[in-house]
Amino acid sequence: xxxxxxxxxxxxxxxxxxxxxxxxxxxxxxxxxxxxxxxxxxxxxxxxxxxxxxxxxxxxxxxxxxxxxxxxxxxxxxxxxxxxxxxxxxxxxxxxxxxxxxxxxxxxxxxxxxxxxxxxxxxxxxxxxxxxxxxxxxxxxxxxxxxxxxxxxxxxxxxxxxxxxxxxxxxxxxxxxxxxxxxxxxxxxxxxxxxxxxxxxxxxxxxxxxxxxxxxxxxxxxxxxxxxxxxxxxxxxxxxxxxxxxxxxxxxxxxxxxxxxxxxxxxxxxxxxxxxxxxxxxxxxxxxxxxxxxxxxxxxxxxxxxxxxxxxxxxxxxxxxxxxxxxxxxxxxxxxxxxxxxxxxxxxxxxxxxxxxxxxxxxxxxxxxxxxxxxxxxxxxxxxxxxxxxxxxxxxxxxxxxxxxxxxxxxxxxxxxxxx
Length: 420
What we know:
The protein has about 425 residues and is mainly α. The protein has helices at about 30-35, 40-55, 60-80, 85-90, 95-130, 135-155, 155-175, 185-190, 200-210, 215-230, 235-270, 280-290, 290-325, 330-345, 350-380, 380-385, 390-415.
């Protein structure tokens, strides 16, 4: 079997030549990857930041989004230039022992991602309809299987449209509250100045970053770009890379706006309100403060976030397995396998907020394992040819890696130290 074959046949697509006005047709993979940036883990982190510290940590989201633009572009670029996903490239370079160890940590990251996303969708169903968490998790899993069936049978483009539709629902659900809340825009602007307020704010900032720049989004974007466009060369490849830059920028602007809107909403409506340390409590406070319509829209946005992100997370898990274990299993089978641990966590009655926090810590551990190889490979002229990162881009990329790793190490150290 061809180890570099895409997970599903690429749908027909128009030629990449022609007017610049056709560039948007080439967009899509980055918007699918962007779902990872507005998943339930982000909701928990952003609401907690706004409720606890007001507008203090706005700058963290702005910085994280800027870093995400660079990271996701490099991920897409490696897939387009080499015709292989990041896990495939690593799988071809690592000996069996290190490859299996690398797969183990990547698989742990994928499991943590799925836990947060299924849990978030289950919480949304509980908020909206009073559905028990275990049943809600099962419903989220079934619906995500339907979404994955679209990708498997209809090709990637219809799957992109469905996920982009869910992204629109997420945006409306989380941004709507801004129009009726009393946001202090002067304080929000002041929040662009980098600063902290004690160790707990550092911990929260690291959690926000860990919930934003996520390892599974790095792995999956390289596969999404490859599966969508295939292997191109020459001017056609250069045109695809230009379109990909716009795809990444546009998708990250949307995701960044949603994240900032969540923080501003919490800062304006939840500061000083008790019981907002859980998503359910935050929803209740939003409903009390802004009305049932805004509360319902928030719940719908959270549900769309859980459904879309768990589908993309499953795609990422299949990409990791195919590249590092060189084993391909149907996406629907993968969905069933990864759903079970999430349902077990829900079934044993673990605290949902604690489970989300733990998932973010595990994701933080996995970030350097995805970022460092990505920058190293995209800077290697043997791998990338004339599309290897320039020296200035290489410097910026390694600085970004250093900042992300440092903040995530701070998250782990502070969690272990039990900072309150």
